[in-house]
Amino acid sequence: MSLRRIAAAALAVAALATIASPVVNAATTTKKTTTAATAKKGPALAGPAAAGKKVFDTQCGICHSVAPGEGGVIGPELNGVVGRKVATVAGFAYSKAMKAKSHMWTAGNLDIYLADPQKFVPGTAMPINLPAAADRTAVIAYLSTTK
Ligand code: HEC
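Predict the joint structure of the above. Result:
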């Protein structure tokens, strides 16, 4: 190997090290930023609740909101629904079928309803179901983090 080649190889190694080091720094910075954000907003959603937010956003959010006071567009507000009495969002026009019910939305009742809304509340205006048990468990876990 000529001296020139050795010098070129050394330069290449130095260049690689320069490229690699900002990546390492970026990763460290990202971690710090996340920790700061978590401290501000409270604990981040973990496990099933995080998965449930995804289910909610893709399957429920088109009709339901979880923002207090935002009201229902097509369906009633679902923030705080776990532990709430059925059909009690003020100002939402529930179906007769739903108004005739008097149960609480326990995790168990939500699971039965979401598996087959028409079976649990025949005549309900909610047109979709969640056939996968894992999706139901996740979305219920997510809803129980809302107030
Ligand atoms: C296409 C619109 C639509 C979608 C999508 C939808 N819903 Fe609904 N949902 C409704 C409507 C409309 C009602 C009111 C039903 C009635 O009055 O019979 C309702 C009612 C409910 C209720 C009863 C609330 C109460 O106050 O008693 C729950 C719980 C619920 N939905 C959960 C969900 C979940 C969880 C998802 C996603 C997996 C979902 N819904 C997806 C339209 C929808």
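The chain has two domains: 1-44, 47-143.
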